[in-house]
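As a warm-up, study this chain.
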Amino acid sequence: MPTLKPKHRPFCFSVKGHVKILRLVFGILAGVCCIADGVLIYRKLLFNPSGPYQKQAIHDKIVL
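Now compare it with the structure written out below.
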């Protein structure tokens, strides 16, 4: 009596293959976004360390 073996599917056509490929793609995308976010924050702090507003001392203000 011949034994029935399941057909061999290539990895990329199986359900687990699709899930692993999607996980890899989203992992790479998340890594790229984190690196880009870090670079943008670094550049903002490097070129504008005090923030968007100029800080003035209290005695520099004109009192009317």
